[in-house]
Amino acid sequence: MAEVMRPEKFDISNDTSSLASPELLHVLAVDDSIVDRKFIERLLKVSSCKVTVVDSATRALQYLGLDGDNSSVGFQDLKINLIMTDYSMPGMTGYELLKKIKESSAFREIPVVIMSSENILPRIDRCLEEGAEDFLLKPVKLADVKRLRDSLMKAEERVFKNIKHKRELEASDIYSQLKRAKI
Amino acid sequence: MQRQVALIKQSLFDQGYLDDQFIELEELQDDANPNFVEEVAALYFKDSPRLINSIDQALERGSFDFNRLDSYMHHIGASKVKTECTMFREYCRVGNAEGCLRSFQQLKKEHAILRKKLDHYFQLARQAGPKEAARRSK
């Protein structure tokens, strides 16, 4: 195909990072307990996920670039598919972290899962109302993590297929326009 | 040797020192990570004494900031130790200082016992060979 038209709109080959076929999910895990961090990290690795673990909600916000010190410009390439956070943490709780994430335009679409060792109904309700994807009781089971991963992979696959299809349509559209122009 | 390890593990389960979570942890072990359970236990026994100490000091001072005591205890719960933790936290919830002191003494005892038993178990398991440590007993 000739270089006849290269408007920005049909920039097909760029931005492969977000277009790579569904691969490893990248999970950000937040927990103030060192034992729990080791455990959730292992669960996620066994489930074939890429893991980043931090020990506080503040550090999670720093990692995401939401702490106000950095603008989010430098973090465009950061691809997080899921955030799993403990509820009870000193300083900022998992619930407060959840709210901050849902308030951010860059990250509000990322599913946030809350983990807690306490089965407190009002707490669960509050989190779900604030937009949490799920609420897991500790100790978290491998089955829980696999279930999460599977449903996320399905969602990613759907998005990937949609984009791919859209681009195929755009490509065939360019092609037919070129054919007409060339006569 | 391997049978001994299996027997000890079974008795730890029977006496309530270990529960299903131990099995879950074992299932996360593989050839690349054969000592995961032991590593977790080691971390726990590195972390929990610090928390126990904090509670000890607070109680000794006569400081019954139940919220703070409760948050220390939050991370200590492990099987039999968990029972005592739960009781301690209940006492915190209702502001019962004497109950806190009593359950805390019991907890320290259980914690020390658990530590000794697990140390012994892991030592034997290592000697018996990595395969045994990863196998389930139930």
What would you say this structure looks like, in words?
The complex is a heterodimer of chains A (183) and B (138). Chain A is α/β, with parallel strands linked by helices and 183 residues long. In chain A, 44% of the residues lie in helices and 14% in strands. A five-stranded parallel β-sheet of chain A has the order 2-1-3-4-5, with helices on both faces. In chain A, helix 2 packs parallel to helix 3. Chain B has 138 residues and is mainly α. Chain B is 77% helix and 0% strand. Chain B contains seven helices and no strands. In chain B, helix 3 (36-60) packs antiparallel against helix 6 and helix 5 runs antiparallel to helix 6 (97-128). Chain B is elongated. The two termini of chain B are 18 Å apart. Chain A binds chain B through residues 33-35, 38-39, 42-43, 46, 88, 90, 117, 139, 141-142, and chain B through 21, 24-25, 27-28, 30, 33, 36, 39-40, 43-44, 46-47, 71, 74-75, 77.
